[in-house]
Automatic annotation (TrEMBL):
Listed Pfam families: TetR_C_33 (PF13305), TetR_N (PF00440)
Domain (HTH tetR-type): residue spans on this chain: 20-66
Lineage: Bacteria, Bacillati, Actinomycetota, Actinomycetes, Micrococcales
Keyword Transcription: yes
Name the UniProt record assigns to this protein: TetR family transcriptional regulator
UniProt keyword annotation of Transcription regulation present: yes
Recorded superkingdom: Bacteria
Native species: Isoptericola halotolerans
Domain HTH-type transcriptional regulator MT1864/Rv1816-like C-terminal span(s) in chain numbering: 94-190
Amino acid sequence: MTTPAAARRARQLEERRSQIVGAARALAETEGWDAVTTRRLADAIEYSQPVLYGHFPQGRTEIVTAVALEGFEELASALAPSSDVPAASDVERVRALVTAYLDFAERHPATYDAMFLLPVLVPFASDETPAIVRAGFEAIADTLRRLDDPPADVPTTAEVFWGAVHGIVALRRAGRFPAVHQEERIETLVRLVVR
């Protein structure tokens, strides 16, 4: 049985952990991941560096992982409604999916980097992949399954679709795609998926 003191301590530890992750995320979103150091985080949350390492023994990589996992949870929440748009056509469902993904990546560029570009301590594409990481993929696959004429191989189509949307994000952010054609890109991708 957990005592009230132990429960309070656990709650305080979780709150401090959330504070550290929130500070890392805010700093990364405003100044980039290079600015996220244990020293800067310790200053931001007004605790010592050993306190940070007490919560995140593997240091910055573990903190980046925590930010990435938060991002995956938020991305899954952003994508999930696209599969369930009432009275929507297939084109509208897939467009909602693409738009939600691109909007998330644009609003949270540093979090997106943590999710897809920086080293993290979670496995991908394996049985050990955390459920929250799989949830975004499942939101994409679920939208494809609900089409009037779904693809014959939903998992592979979902992977290719995800790769295409991620490619749009990466190429836009790198300045390789001009902003002026974003709507045309979205419509082209939608038409490639909806037959």
